[in-house]
Amino acid sequence: MEFNVTRDGLTLAGIYEPAPQPTGTIAILFHGFTSDRGYTPTALLTQLAQRLRAIGVGTVRFDFNGCGHSEGDFANMTVLNEIADAQAVLTAVQTRLAPQRIDLLGHSQGGVVASMLAGYNADLIHKLVLMAPAATLKDDALAGHTRGLVYDPQHIPAQLPLGNGKTLGGFYLRTAQHLPIYETAQNFAGPVCLIHGDADQIVAYSASQRYDAIYPHSTLHLLSGASHSLDGAARDDVLRLATDFIAD
Q1: Which of 55, 180, 214, 240 could, after both became Cys, cross-link 186 (CB 3.0–4.6 A)?
Q2: Is residue 50 pLDDT above 90, yes or no?
Q3: Residue 181 and residue 169: Cα distance in Å, rounded?
Q4: Dihedral over Cα of 63, 66, 72, 76: its sign
Q5: What is each CA distance from 29 to 58, 60, 103, in whole angstroms?
Q6: What is the predicted pLDDT for the residue at 62?
Q7: Nearest to 220 by CA among 128, 139, 126
Q8: Cα separation of 238 and 37, whole Å?
Q9: Nearest to 141, CA basis, from 174, 181, 180
Q10: Is the dihedral of CA 3, 93, 138, 209 positive or negative?
Q11: Cα distance from N-terminal residue to C-terminal residue, the chain
Q12: Beta bridge partners of 135
């Protein structure tokens, strides 16, 4: 069912899919950079939601601002305002659905957002699953290379074309250079499941190793041969690891 949320005048397109036999847990799923909440049967978040509902966990998925069916211009997207999107969705889940427990699952940049949101709301979040979390986005911005873009990190232009019809705003990169990713994430002391492919060419698995080092109760799963999209032969492993962790 539709689960739209308004944040600072923008409507974020969301969907709530209750579990047939609910356990009292709701999972919020966060998509990655330039992606969406999942509109095809093969999308990672679509498949995760299906598996989670099968174990009694209802799910909420949504498009970040400027992505999918949500309002906003992608050129204005930053990690900071994606955190604001996520906070608005978290509040809506609390007030509208009143679950007993809330779990967060994020892929790529959505993993960074999930980790920081959990750090800010450590008393509200039950479990956390980070899949190929893109915490290297800060290092990339400091070095002047992001997703194929090359720029002067000391003189970032106002906009940069991504080559896929989207434009990345310079403010995204300026704020990325100063994000307290791990400093915020480490405030969460609950159970964490980290999943990363050792063949990821977009986000080095050292990002997940660093997360693993800061969390007191985390488990890191390095998947042999898996890419950043965690598809192909690795997909079943990802779905199994995530749902087993949430179900445990």
Answers
A1: 214
A2: yes
A3: 20
A4: positive
A5: 11, 6, 9
A6: 98
A7: 128
A8: 17
A9: 174
A10: negative
A11: 27
A12: none
Separation CA 236–CA 172 (nearest Å): 33
State in words which class domain 5-247 has. alpha beta
Residue 187: C-alpha distances to residues 11, 137, 165, 172 (Å): 30, 20, 37, 24
Alpha helices in the chain (DSSP H): 44-54, 79-92, 109-120, 137-143, 170-176, 181-185, 206-214, 234-247
pTM, full prediction: 0.97
* Rounded distance between C-alpha atoms, residue 39 and residue 77, angstroms: 21
DSSP state of 63: P
Angle, nearest 10°, between helix axes 44-54 and 234-247? 40
Whole-number pLDDT of residue 165: 85
The contacts of residue 52 (CB under 8 Å, 6+ apart) are: 19, 27, 58, 59, 242, 243, 246
> What is the chain's mean pLDDT, rounded?
97
Which helix (H) or strand (E) element contains residue 102?
strand 101-107
Structure tokens at 233: 């032969």
DSSP β-ladder status, 101-107 and 127-131:
parallel
Amino acid at 54: A
The model's pLDDT over 4-29, given as tens digits with 9 standing for 90+, comes to 999 999 999 999 999 999 999 999 99
C-alpha torsion sign, points 224, 136, 43, 83: positive
State the Cα angle at 65 between 59 and 69, rounded to 5°: 70
Domains of the chain, residue spans: 5-247
